[in-house]
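help with these tokens:
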Amino acid sequence: MSEMIYLDNSATTFPKPEEVYTYMDSFYRKHGVNPGRSGFDAAIETEEVVFNTRKMLADLFNGDGDVNRLTFSYNASDSLNMIIQGLSRRGDHVITTMLEHNSVLRPLYHLSSEGHIEVDHIPFDKAGYVDPGDIRKAIRKNTRMVVVNHCSNVIGTIQPVSEIGRICKEQGVYLVVDGSQSAGAVPVDMRTMDIDVFVFTGHKCLMGPTGIGGSYVMEDVPVRYTRFGGTGVRSAQQTHLEEFPYRLECGTLNLVGVAGLNAGVRWINEHGIENLHHKEMDLWDKLRAGLSKIEGVVIYCCESRQNHNPVISFNITGMDSGDVGTILDVDYNIACRTGLQCAPKVHEGIGTDKIHGTVRLSIGPFNTPEHIDAAIEAVSEIAEIARKTPAPKMQVAGL
């Protein structure tokens, strides 16, 4: 079997840089001890790596200068749960968008269904972008926060966070940004974008392993702790600690994950976020051009490479997206993602919710022009088979 062509980088980037694998192995062999609990050399050295990783990320996102407000968790979903539950209060109104991942939709749904909050979902336009003016119009007296997906994992559009942030600041509303697809992919500046909380995961564009993520919470954002446990500090105190990072961290960290994230951030800093993004978007342009020429292929929200990540969702008329994904895998050894991609309201917006979603191809830093050529050729051959199949055609919606 030929080598797998991996085009599922929105799920997780793969492979990782060799430096990440090497550093994780060497770190855990030498420093796989518990930091912040003991005073021996290995524990102190481990804590230094944890602190340095906090600092690199705080600098990358341009937080307000307090490194300890960068906290670690399992992933973005984990942090979004803590932030949404810790920042909301009974009777609050929350604004979010139709672009959100279930890591935002489900916490908000549960709080809403239990009568704690009210939620409004702002739609996006035919190109895949939310109008900041619509968010302004939706703000009420009891609006507590706006939760926005910086970049869609389905259609790749990058939202106008700076404009949304300016509106939120003017109206005294907290802005929480889900940066799962943007952290490490595009520049993020919390100060100039007026972001109050930025949530990230390590295993996507930050090039780290799975099982590590976190958030940066700006000063004076009153996120309550919702978990309680050991911190290694003031152990006789019965209540959980208020100060950061302990407010949002308890128990032993995923140290090997932190180490891998450390190496991943160093790698993207070395290569340059803008350089990596430009290379990937050149491949995206090539893929978009190729797919758009294939009869029967419908692509969604790919009008321009501006404010876009290297993600394309498409369908082939007459075929289920899951079947297309299986053929790409089995016959062409191309890895992709099909279905609703954990973001059902995006599919409502592009009209694919009733036809089992889309086929998603997402490009990463280790993809090549040859990979894109192979994907275009494969989709072209599958589409030709679909055109020749006499079975009734399934209508494919599109924007």
In short: The chain is about 40% helix and 15% strand. The longest strand covers residues 143-149. The two ends are 37 Å apart (CA to CA).
